[in-house]
Structure formats: C-alpha cells, structure tokens
Amino acid sequence: MAANTNIFTEKQTNNWFKAYIALNWTKEGLTDFVVTELINVQKTVGSSCGQCFIQNLIPCPTQDVCKKRKRTNCSFHNSLQYKSCQTCTKVKQNITSLHRFNKPSWANTKAERWAIDPWEIGKCYLPRDGYSSVSSVQASDFNGVISIMLNCTHFQTCVSTACLSPPPPDKQCPLEKVRQIGRDVRHTANCKVTDADLQYFFLTLSTLLSDSVCLVHDPSATKARRKLSDLQNDRISLDDLGKLVIEANQILTQAKRFSEEAERTLKEGLDALEDKIQAGEQSIENKTQESINRIKQAANEKELDEYDRGIAGERLRA
Ligand SMILES: [Zn+2]
Ligand SMILES: [Zn+2]
Predict the structure, then answer these.
(1) Which InterPro entries match (predicted)?
(2) Residues near 110 by Cβ (< 8 Å), separated by ≥ 6?
(3) Complex ipTM value
(4) What's residue 191's pLDDT?
(5) Residue 73: nearest ligand to its CA?
(6) For residue 300, how far is the Cα from the chain centroid?
C-alpha cells in the first residue's frame, strides 16, 4: 500500500525532508561498494605488523597531528613514543601516497588494526575531525563516505573518469558537487529546498549510483536508485513511511535546529510511533498522522520562535 510522503504542509520543507532521506539512502547504496574497495586498498597498502599504534609511527611533534607542550605530555602521543618499524612505515607511506592531498587523517585511525580491519585504513581518508569513534562504513555518514571516495585515489579506478574530472578540490568536479549537496542539506538554515534544487539533487545522486564502472552492477546501489526514484515520485510503502518518520525524528533531534521544546515534542510523538510499529500495531496510518501533526506543530512553534527572535534582533540592531 502506497502512502503519501508529503509529511509537512510546506512544500519546500517536504522537499528538504526528501533530500535528507535521499542522502541517507544514497549513502546506504554506496556502502557495499566502499566496503569492497577498502578491502582492495588494504591489499594495495600491504600488511602492517599489528603491534604498532599510530602514535608509534609518528614522531612527536608532527604538524597537523600533535603539538608538544612544555612540561605536559602531548595529548595525542600520551605515553606512547615514536619507534622504528619498517613494515608499518611502509604501509603508512603507501596510505599517504594514495591520499589525493598527501594528508591522511592519522588521528582518526588505529594502526594496530590496519591488517585486520580495512575501515581503519579508510578512516585515514576521512575529514580530520569527528570520525575517530565511527566504527564502520555502515556507521559513517554521507559526508564520510563521499570524502573517502574523493580523498583516496584508489577510487579513480572504480568510478568513471567523468565522475572525477575536473579533479577535486575543483568545485566543478561531479563528486565534489555530490558532497556539496550533503553539506547544503545538512547545514540548512530553514529546512527548505526548492523544487528545482530537489530535482537536481535526485538527478545528481542517481547519476552517481549508476556510475558505469562498478556501481551500475552493484545490487545495493541499484536498490538505492530504485528507492530514490520511488521517493521522487511519491511511491513509497506505508511501512517505509513509518521508518521515514522515525528517521525524521532522529534527524531533527540531531540537527539541533529546533527549540528544545519542539525537539521534545517531536521525540515523544515519534517514540510512541516507533513503539506502535514495533508492536505490529495496525493503526500505523493514524499514528503516523498523529506524529506528523506533532512535527508540524513543533515546526510552527519553531518558526514563531525564530520570528520572535528575529523581531527582537531587529529591535536590538535598530
Ligand atoms: Zn609495526
Ligand atoms: Zn605528539
């Protein structure tokens, strides 16, 4: 049974919501591909000894990694000292030479696990901040997955040339444009996306998911592409809609864009919904509607709140 994906009254808020969901699904669609290719990267860089920690492989101090302070220990190196290990130094060099900008994020990675966990190598290609505790490609976010594809030059061999030309960091690079979509949607000031932008997002994400070198043959990517097309055309099952509403809860809670009160209202409404779905409750449609109303209410409250603050701000400036 199909359900209406238009959860919010405001068209552009619905668009934003769809864009956010589209990004999550795109990330899911890319996950298997990135997992597989990181295994190939691991083979390429060779085996580490398994005994060295990243702190052992980096002299103290090293620019962009750590600073030595007078009298106190370096917070990165702590009690671990630099030591010579030819095996691991070679792997570390290989990781560096596969980095597009020769700047792996060393603080992210656990070198003692390089030989057993390709993800620990993948983490070297993530942005420097915010990913050290992320435990897998699956647990990573959209930005993380795209960053690995952009920063690790191994991916040049498994996506089409068109996807990476002009090469990053050129803003015209198609994969850079994909990353920018993620940023625009995540850092939105008003949770709104125009119809034209939404169409552009769907087209760009679907194009990536059907890249002719590997992704076009990848079942997860194909599935994600189908889901995007269904989302774009409002062909979505009631069950999926329930999941979406729960996802919306998480998104809006994490986003911290809503007032605390609105956030609480959202959370209560959607938690209740989740319980009902898990209990196999038949009246999901009503419950969904109830939660939707709560989101709308919370969004209205937030808008009023912002409006009030805007007025207050103008008064202050005047
Ligand atoms: Zn070693
Ligand atoms: Zn240090």
Answers:
(1) DUF4559 (IPR027897)
(2) 53, 54, 117, 120
(3) 0.98
(4) 78
(5) 2
(6) 28
**Tokens encoding 180:** 């920018």
Task: Calculate the dihedral angle through the C-alpha atoms of 300, 302, 308, 312, rounding to the nearest 10 degrees.
Answer: -160
> Nearest ligand to the C-alpha of residue 107?
2
Instruction: Report pLDDT for 118.
Output: 97
**Cβ 123 vs Cβ 105: under 8 Å:** yes
Ligand nearest to the CA of 87: 1
Above pLDDT 70, what percent of the chain?
74
CA distances from 26 to 141, 290, 291, 298 (A): 10, 28, 26, 28
Q: What are the tens digits of pLDDT across the range 98-122?
A: 999 999 999 989 999 999 999 999 9
Beta bridge partners of 152: 99
Task: State in Å: Cα 6 to ligand 1 middle.
Answer: 55
Q: Which of 118, 204, 208 is nearest to 154 (CA)?
A: 118
Domain boundaries, the chain: 11-234, 236-318
203 has pLDDT over 90:
yes
* Distance (Å, whole) CA 280 – CA 210: 35
